[in-house]
Specification:
Length: 186
Amino acid sequence: MTKASDLRTGMCLKLSNEIHRILLAEMKVGTAKLPSSVHVRLQNLHTGTQTEQRLHPEAKVEDISVETVTMEYSYSDAEALYLMNPVSFEQVAVPRRMFGNYEKFLDAGSKVRIEFYGEEPIAVAIPKTADAVVAQTGAPIHGDIDSAPKEATLENGLEIHVPQFIKTGDKVRIEVETGKYLERLH
């Protein structure tokens, strides 16, 4: 058990038999009319929903320890992605919803960090960026619209907008969450 005043961003806790990650924790100092409180923004790791709560600084909450394991992506089906622990060779099914857009960037053997509570996978540590190769794009347009983006299709099938100087075969860095082009890699 941990006091609410000791809660920090990134910690995991159990509230009402649900596992939550703290997205934001801040202490609000009291005034003559209002007592001190701890404001926390929580994400339910099973449903993905976010809630906010106000706790008394001395309130006790159940913090949990989470183990992070680097696993290798093997394959997927309609409901889950299957990852293998490279040490024990044990395979774990992780629900698709935990991966979001990052699933499009996974190849067989890709390393993925999975957080476990006991034997249950509760979260995927998704990187902010991913690299991909441009499979197809049009020729650059010169003239008045040099700064206008053009469409490109990546090898994973994702369609994005890229600058005019990008050509087929170039390796680019993409923001995973939005699918936005960030830079060309050499």
